[in-house]
Design brief:
This protein is an alpha+beta fold. It contains six helices and eight strands, in the order ββαααβββαβαββα. It has a single domain, classed as Aminopeptidase. Strands 1-2-3-4-5-6-8-7 form an eight-stranded mixed sheet, with helices on both faces. A hairpin with a 4-residue loop joins β4 and β5. The longest helix has 16 residues.
């Protein structure tokens, strides 16, 4: 259904599938408490990071409903691995997907997640012909919520204490964009 040609380039970034040689930078990011604070998993040790990375190296295409496209975000200028962006195919019948992003805090506030996430929205709407793409985040993660809004997604829901995560009830925000909204915002 979706198998892009790599690397995908933007003004400042290269997006490509993970490779096993990414382990050091991948591990360094997953060791940072700030990174995993609002994710479903805890800090990863080196072996856990290696196992997760090995799985992510296979996420280079979307072939069936439920598949994730996981792309490493690389800074063109230095070759540094900044983190990753993801696109999931949620439903064929309803033409729906989901995006997500995780970046090393050293690269926050520079627009890299925005730049990379726009690529995934483009792939979802223009290549996969999705009708609706959502982005979800912990309600306390104001930076992610701001990014989803900056991408042009509208907040559709604030689910109160809907998930038990890391020993506490957490609220979740759900943002979404429709294909027509993407087209209108991008002159398509």
């Amino acid at each position: 259904m979706l198998h892009p040609t790599y690397p995908i380039t933007t003004d400042r970034l290269l997006l490509r599938p993970y490779v096993l040689d990414d382990l050091e930078d991948f591990y360094e990011t997953l060791r940072i408490p700030e990174v995993v604070r609002y994710l479903y998993w805890e800090i990863k040790n080196r072996d856990e990071a290696a196992t997760l990375l090995a799985r992510r190296t296979t996420c280079d295409a979307i072939r069936a409903v439920g598949d994730w496209l996981v792309l490493a975000v690389i800074l063109k200028e230095t070759g540094a691995l900044l983190g990753d962006v993801v696109l999931k195919w949620e439903s064929a019948e309803h033409r729906q997907g989901e995006i997500g992003f995780v970046l090393n805090p050293a690269y926050h506030g520079k627009g890299y997640a925005y730049e990379a996430s726009r690529v995934l929205l483009s792939l979802g709407f223009e290549e996969m012909k999705l009708h609706r793409i959502v982005g979800r985040c912990d309600a306390r993660n104001t930076a992610s919520a701001r990014l989803l809004e900056r991408l042009g997604m509208r907040r559709e829901a604030h689910l109160v204490q809907n998930e038990w995560v890391k020993g506490e009830w957490t609220d979740e925000l759900i943002y979404a964009m429709l294909d027509g909204e993407w087209a209108a915002a991008n002159g398509s």
